[in-house]
Amino acid sequence: MDTFEKIAHLEGYKCIAGVDEAGRGPLAGPVVAAAVIFQLSYINPEINDSKKLSARQREKLYEIITREAIAVGVGVADAEIIDKVNILQATFLAMREAVLELSTPPDYLLIDGLHCIALQIPQKPLVKGDTLSISIAAASIIAKVFRDRIMEIYHRQFPQYNFLRNKGYGTKEHCRAIEQFGMCKIHRKSFHIKKFNLKQTTLDLF
Question: Residue 46: its pLDDT value, please?
Answer without folding.
Answer: 97
